[in-house]
TrEMBL record:
<protein>
    <submittedName>
        <fullName>Glucosamine-6-phosphate deaminase 1</fullName>
        <ecNumber>3.5.99.6</ecNumber>
    </submittedName>
</protein>
<keyword id="KW-0378">Hydrolase</keyword>
<dbReference type="GO" id="GO:0004342">
    <property type="term" value="F:glucosamine-6-phosphate deaminase activity"/>
</dbReference>
<dbReference type="InterPro" id="IPR037171">
    <property type="entry name" value="NagB/RpiA_transferase-like"/>
</dbReference>
<dbReference type="InterPro" id="IPR052960">
    <property type="entry name" value="GlcN6P_deaminase-like"/>
</dbReference>
Length: 292
């Protein structure tokens, strides 16, 4: 498969070796299943189809699905709603656990009417689009509660585990809002793997890249969030992750071929036995690192 035009062939040893890995070798030596699709719209279609499949497989196995789901990527939700409506497929008893939510400075959910609220987004772009008789029961639309972070694990235990986790990967390798430790604050990998649902500060990197989607105004991105933990995510039976942004070209190389460490939380997916990663072609291509 041809490589993209890139300046990586002129790289010096100042750059990590994993940045030189072409798409054919991205998952070499790992158990990760890689799919490369054309663009952002195909990512959304692929993700919606995979979510629908996970829901149906759980039902075939005799129980309603329990899924951990993101707001980011986001475009899959209207597609999934249309699939469910077209098939008249009820997900009344399916439990959807959102990965995270922004918090106010006093560690309360931002209001659901806040333009950046993940709960509000799920309502507008998924739940409100479903035929009411097909929609999950209100008690099955879950967001981690900053005032009762232990409730997520209790719910998961009551449901017999999570059938599948879906998500994206942040510019610093975070999954959900499991941020890497700040410089000078080491967390052993074994300890990072066991981090539970919790409230935390967002890193500057996360706030900066998230501001890109709202016009570049970093001041409106909250500092605090609640997130599902690495412990709950990695206990899910299946992992399905998606990358649709051009800046993810470098981070997926670090995730797949760099050290397995909490310094790049998504690299810990490689400790799981059933992981799929779906990326756009421009993410699979070698990063073009140069001034231009």
């Amino acid at each position: 498969m041809p490589q993209s035009k890139s300046t990586l062939n002129t790289m010096t040893t100042e750059f990590p070796d994993y940045l030189k890995i072409n798409r054919d070798a991205l998952v070499k030596g790992t158990a990760v299943k890689l799919s490369v699709v054309k663009d952002m719209s195909e990512i959304a279609q692929h993700m919606a189809t995979a979510m629908f499949k996970a829901i149906k497989v759980a039902e075939q196995n005799g129980h309603p699905a329990t899924l951990i789901v993101p707001v980011g990527p986001v475009d899959q939700y209207p597609i999934l709603a249309d699939m469910l409506n077209q098939n008249q497929y009820s997900i009344r008893d399916v439990m959807l656990i959102n990965m995270d939510e922004y918090l106010t400075d006093d560690d309360q959910w931002v209001d659901i009417s806040h333009p950046l609220s993940f709960r509000g987004y799920m309502n507008r772009k998924f739940y409100d689009l479903l035929n009411p008789e097909l929609s999950p029961l209100p008690e099955n639309r879950i967001c981690p509660d900053p005032n009762n972070v232990g409730a997520i694990q209790q719910l998961i235990d009551q449901r017999g585990g999570v059938d599948a986790c879906f998500g994206g990967i942040g510019i610093n390798g975070h999954i959900a809002f499991n941020e890497p430790p700040e410089p000078g604050h080491m967390i052993p990998t074994e300890e990072f793997l066991q981090l539970p649902t919790r409230n935390l500060n967002l890193t500057r990197e996360t706030r900066t890249i998230n501001s890109v989607t709202v016009g570049g105004e970093i001041s409106i991105i909250p500092w605090r969030a609640v997130t599902i933990g690495m412990k709950e995510i990695l206990a899910a039976k299946e992992q399905h992750f998606y990358c649709n942004r051009i800046w993810q070209s470098s981070v997926i190389r670090r995730v797949l071929q760099g050290p397995i460490t909490g310094d790049c939380p998504a690299s810990l997916l490689r400790t799981h036995s059933d992981v799929s990663l779906t990326v756009a072609e421009y993410v699979a291509d070698l990063p073009d690192i140069r001034l231009r």
